[in-house]
Amino acid sequence: MKRGFAALMMCLLLTGCWDQLRLKDQLFVDIVGIDYVGDSKKLKVGYVISSLREASQGGGKPSSVYIEQPGDSLYASVLVANSSIPGSLTVQETRLYLIGTRFAKDEPLKYLDSVGQFVSNPLYASLAVYDGDLSQLLSKKRIKDQTTSDFLTGILASERERGDIPTNKLLRYILGGTDYISDFALNRFVPDQEGARLAGVALFHDGKYTGMNLDIKQTLLSCLMAGTPSRTQAITRKFNGEEYTIRIRNSKNDYHAIYDNKGLREMDISLRLDAKLIESGPYVTHTTSVLKKIEKQLSEKLTKEAEKIIATMQKANCDYFQLGHELAAYHPNLFKGMNWSEAYPKLTINPKIKVTILNTGVLD
Amino acid sequence: METMKEDAITGRQLFVLIFMTQLGLEVMSLPHVEADIAGHDMWLSVFLSGLCAQAGIMLIWWLGSRYPSRNCFAYVPQIVGRPVGAFVNLMYGCYYAISGLMLILNYTDVLNRWLFVYTPGWIITLMIFIACGYAASLSLRRIAYIAQSYLILSVIAILLIAGCWLYGPDVKNLLPVLSGGWNPVVKGIYYAFSGYVGYDLLLYAFPYVKAKSKNRLLLIMTFANMTAILYYVLSCLICSTMFSLKQLKHIPEPIVFILKYYQLEVLQSLDVMFLIFYVFIVSDTAYIYFFLSAKAFVHLRSKGLGKHQIWVWAMVGLAFIGSLFFKKRSTIINFSDLQDIGSVFMIIAVPAVLLIISGLRGAGRNRA
Q: Mean per-residue pLDDT for A278-290?
């Protein structure tokens, strides 16, 4: 009797309907684009809403709607946007937050913090910069025969899968995620004839976009130097008039601080790449000495490039490798007396990249 | 007196009961609370706090082994006399009822903020109270059966949490160890202690365990406590390597956030699933509190006062009415802080005093 009563009560109460969501009322926002309106400090927030048309006939046609609303904060804009279209915006499926450069140069993370308040928000969405007119890009219906959101998020997802670009998950940055050293690099899209393409990363210092970038080749190398695991990323370089391509099978990065009693003297970044040689100009038998020569030349070439990358980062004062945090963690006494953001641009940083060729693929 | 009879439980059941009672909402909130106090050395605080709990276990075990055939609520009047003993039992009864109430309130609060935004809080509380009340009115052995069947959920929970390590932890967040000296760590021990509360079930369960010897019983308790330590330390380590300190200070339930990292093709929002099945882990602790509360009240009189079931439903009813008065989150938090002080008093100070008095009396008797 008692058991039956308890079961009955549970059944009656479990069917509560306060928090039910009707699927047909949901507007699934796929991309949120944020920039400033003109020269003002008012936010212009755009939402790419995906839907399946004619889904009742099976399959369905993916289509997207773009709406844009200004607001003083992200939340204010969401509220206005919500009343401008029937249904309610939901960020349950949001995969990308795209920010404009002018907004990125101000304090983007401050505004983005409120994203953490969206209850249903899976925060695995990525954060990226678009160096162009956001409204123009996002209002496009299709790019290369895919919906705009599938195109943009697809590029990011597949490149990330290959380990060519930084992960840039939103959750890493918002709510003070970068409080130790707020220097990072975000993937950067630029306009292209048809839509947009990935053009490397934008460098941030102190949470603000510095206006300096790395190109796509430099991005891969800096990812490896920052410790991205090897996923057979391909590196192609030209020297001696020939193209050389390797695929990374294994990579190991290491940071090393060199100091004396006067303080920090320099920091070394070493990167060991174990690779498979794919192409090396006209076909020659890969004797040990030939391979050694290629290893040496490739190592030198990449080390030079790494020096250039570091020079750019220091010029932008962007400590993307988090060397400051490294120093604070392993040499706290050394770090304590330093003003890192002043010391970093002047610091001697020596990269050393060593390529080892494990094999030459299926051909000898 | 029939209401005071109890079925025996096995050592394995004791282990599960103690471990499941120790696990509570603190898994979710401890990294947030400790971030403000012990900073990135929180794992150390949590570990040391577990050792303090171990000392508390020894204390209760010692006390229990002086009266191996009776539970604590039955031998308290013998140690301190009948009127004071009744008062102590009354205190225990109220303390456990309040503990159960606070736990359920805190969990409802989490659900209301994360999941059921529109559902009135009292509906959720009522449902949990009904389930807990029903479970608490069972015997110790049946409660142990329930705990045993929920055990798998706590294993799934820790696997889900540990799986987040795939998404790139930053070990640098833990270094340098003890950057602020020992002070914050020691202070953090107190705040982490609330996570280990629950081992005090031994106060009641001691005489009903079928263990080979009392040393073996202590071993089982230690093993349960160590498992709880491992659980908490692991979840703290994961949170502090996955989040910056500032994020931990901002986010009251870092574990829920951490589960948002998962991006699976077939399943969306693992955090939602986690929050829902966490009800089993929370209610497991809550009904044991109500069970203990009722037992304490039954022992107000040496030959028993009322029926266990009636006391359970009375306390559950009162607690539910009490829960209606908590509207603001800050009130719940402040009251929880008071309850934490109460915990230290009730499960460390009171048993210690009882042990001392009982020791003195024993010594006196020996001399006489």
A: 80
